[in-house]
Amino acid sequence: MYRKERAMDEAGMRTVAEVFRDRDDFLITSHVNPEGDSIGSQLAVFYMLKKLGKNAVMANHDPVPDNLKFLPGTGLITRGLPGDLCPGTVIVLDCAVLERTGKICRRPLEGQFIVNIDHHVSNEFFGDVNWVEPGASSVGEMVFRLAGELGVELEKDVAEAIYTAIVTDTGMFNYDNTSRETHRVAGELIARGVDPKAMHGKIFEAKSLSEIRLLGKVLTTLRLEAGGALAHMSITRQMYREEGVDYVSTDEFINFPRSIKGVEVAVFFKEMDDTRERVNVSFRSSGKVDVNVLASRFGGGGHAQAAGCVFNCGLEEARARVLSEVKRAFKE
Ligand SMILES: [Mn+2]
């Protein structure tokens, strides 16, 4: 029995290719707290537009994480919009809703043309052009095909950017979004010079001592509920202060509660270092509970097995609201 091929939106891809050919000035952006898929696909799209002879700039709300700075071109990504810039076309990558870009697209300029390229099932089709493939492992996997459509040859540097996007969004080819197409694209990237072992070292084995110590603190908060089907843990501002760090990536922390035998839903609460109270919540599911539905009840979204939302309240309140909703979902 063959596993079903994943659905692709070839018409959406061709429309995006037309926009790339027809227009001249582009801004490429992605979501707040960028990670491998957002940065990797941003670099790849930038590279393609440059090859087509276009003007393009890259800007995000938050800085490039330290572990991705080895990717060539990340130095060109600005934090916030560069001054007086007003490109006619904005390419938004890996964002289910426009607000995910933070202040970059808080107020889209009059007449600005928005190209929405994404793989979240909760995508709201906010663009003038929308290319959305919920079956894709990553936006990186999608833009690899776009390069083919545009006839742009990918050199090793950009192949590494796309590989980074895929390997991070699939949890090293472990998640349910990993398809035959994902591995086909990864194979094509290896053919272009990508060294998987070297990439793994740079992306996943370049942690700081504070990051590991922070993980230790977070794991002491890990609790099991609902007969062992629900695991949750939290990070507080106090923990960051104790380690003397402003920001380190905690994206992988949720893999620990997720990996406990019997856990159906894992939840990670992150108290954000803001002046006002804000809590970021990440959900992971083993498949029985759709966490995209859960997160959307709190104004968030994502994928069926990985989603998130934000609360503008204290940690205790956010935890109480989320945990009761998860327990209710178990009963449904
Ligand atoms: Mn993604």
Can you describe what's shown?
The protein has two domains: 195 residues, inorganic pyrophosphatase (n-terminal core), CATH 3.90.1640; 123 residues, Diaminopimelate Epimerase, Chain A, domain 1. The chain starts with 9 loop residues before the first helix and ends with a helix. Helix 2 runs parallel beside helix 3. The chain has 332 residues and is an alpha/beta fold. Strand 9 and strand 10 form a beta hairpin. The mean pLDDT is 93. It is globular. The structure holds manganese (II) ion. The site of manganese (II) ion (MN) has 6 residues, from loops.
CATH class category name of the largest domain: Alpha Beta
Q: Into how many domains do the coordinates divide?
A: 2
CATH architecture of the largest domain: Alpha-Beta Complex
Structure class: alpha/beta
Q: What about the largest sheet?
A: 6 strands, parallel
Q: Portion of residues in helices?
A: 25-40%
H-E string: HEHEEEEEHHHHHEEHHEEHEEH
Strand order of the largest sheet: 3-2-1-4-5-6
Could you state the CATH homologous superfamily of the largest domain? Answer: inorganic pyrophosphatase (n-terminal core)
Note the gap between the termini. Answer: 31 Å
**What is the name of the CATH topology of the largest domain?**
inorganic pyrophosphatase (n-terminal core)
Instruction: Give the low-confidence spans.
Output: none
Report the portion of residues in β strands.
15-25%
Name the average pLDDT: 93
The oligomeric state is single chain
Q: What is the β-strand count?
A: 12
- Global geometry: globular
Q: Given the structure, what is the number of helices?
A: 11
Could you tell me which ligands this complex binds, including any ions or cofactors? Answer: manganese (II) ion
C-alpha-based Rg, rounded: 20 Å
